[in-house]
């Protein structure tokens, strides 16, 4: 415990307080002393009574102000919560958009790679062996077969001419 | 697998060409034999086929030649 010497309304007081609270106690005593000194005339007890009443009035006023500020504080808290929620949603949306963008970019890259491979393949085919003789395709083979059928029929008819 | 398919295609075309060559030889032989035969009687036409059949035969020959020309042109174009 700490010993503190206070002077309020011209009278000294020896009081005790918890260690470390001395400065706060002296500050509070100075507030009471200022109120008591502001009251002119009357006895010391009367001065202290009015000082106490004035401090009680200030306390009540401060409490009223704090009470009226409470709904505003609630609104502010709600607004902050809403803003934080929107910020989180916006962040999620942004993250999803970045993800989609990244996936689209990958697809574009893959398409470009496929296109490059196809272009290379086409170029390779274009630069293929030019000396190779042109071969009959399956359609030509079939068409030749059909013509052979018709010529064989013609030959049979010619052979049957007396 | 692709080489195998190519061989098959070539075989199909080669077989068809062989068949065409053989059919043409048969026709040439038949026409040569017929030209060497003496006419049966004066005034009788060398062709014993009816006129309609003759026209049909000519039309078929022209059609086959046209088809061959078309095929050759197509093969040259690739």
Structure report:
The complex is a heterodimer of chains A (162) and B (78). A two-stranded antiparallel ribbon of chain A has the order 1-2. Chain A is built from 3 helices and 2 strands; from the N terminus they run ββααα. Mean pLDDT of chain A is 85; it is low at 129-133. Chain A has helices spanning 22-38, 44-126, 138-160, and strands at residues 2-8, 11-17. Chain A has a domain at 2-84. Chain B is an all-alpha fold. Chain B has helices at residues 2-36, 51-77. Classes of the chains: A mainly alpha (162), B mainly alpha (78). The A-B interface holds A 134-138, 140-145, 147-148, 150-155, 157-159, 161-162 and B 6, 9-10, 12-13, 15-17, 19-20, 23-24, 26-27, 30-31, 34, 47-49, 57, 60-61, 63-64, 67-68, 71, 74-76, 78.
With strands numbered from the N-terminus, the spatial order across the biggest sheet of chain A is 1-2
What is the subunit arrangement here?
heterodimer
Low-confidence stretches of chain A: 129-133
Sheet having the most strands of chain B: none
- The ordered string of helix (H) and strand (E) elements of chain B is HH
Distance between the termini of chain B: 22 Å
The SSE string of chain A, one letter per element, is EEHHH
- Write down the overall mean pLDDT of chain B: 75
Structural domains of chain B: how many: 2
DSSP helical segment count of chain A = 3
Enumerate how many helices of chain B there are, as a single number.
2
Main pleated sheet of chain A: 2 strands, antiparallel
How would you sum up the global shape of chain A? rod-shaped
Number of strands of chain B: 0
Instruction: Note the overall shape of chain B.
Output: flat
First CA to last CA of chain A: what distance? 150 Å
Roughly how many Å is the radius of gyration of chain B?
Answer: 19 Å
């Amino acid at each position: 415990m700490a010993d503190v010497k206070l002077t309020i309304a011209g009278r000294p007081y020896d009081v005790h307080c918890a260690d470390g609270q001395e400065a706060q106690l002296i500050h509070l005593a100075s507030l009471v002393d200022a109120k008591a000194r502001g009251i002119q005339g009357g006895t010391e007890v009367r001065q202290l009574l009015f000082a106490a009443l004035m401090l009680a009035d200030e306390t009540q006023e401060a409490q009223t102000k704090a009470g009226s500020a409470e709904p505003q504080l609630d609104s502010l808290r709600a607004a902050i919560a809403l803003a934080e929620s929107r910020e989180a949603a916006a962040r999620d949306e942004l993250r999803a958009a970045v993800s989609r963008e990244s996936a689209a970019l990958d697809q574009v890259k893959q398409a470009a790679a496929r296109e490059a491979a196809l272009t290379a393949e086409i170029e390779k085919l274009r630069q293929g062996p030019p000396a190779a003789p042109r071969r009959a395709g399956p359609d030509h083979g079939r068409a030749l077969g059909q013509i052979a059928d018709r010529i064989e029929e013609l030959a049979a008819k010619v052979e049957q001419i007396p | 697998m692709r080489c195998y398919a190519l061989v098959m295609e070539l075989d199909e075309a080669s077989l068809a060409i062989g068949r065409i060559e053989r059919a043409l030889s048969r026709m040439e032989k038949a026409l040569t034999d017929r030209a060497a035969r003496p006419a049966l009687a004066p005034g009788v036409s060398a062709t014993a086929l009816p006129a309609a059949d003759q026209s049909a035969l000519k039309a078929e020959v022209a059609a086959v030649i046209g088809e061959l020309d078309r095929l050759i042109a197509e093969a040259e174009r690739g």
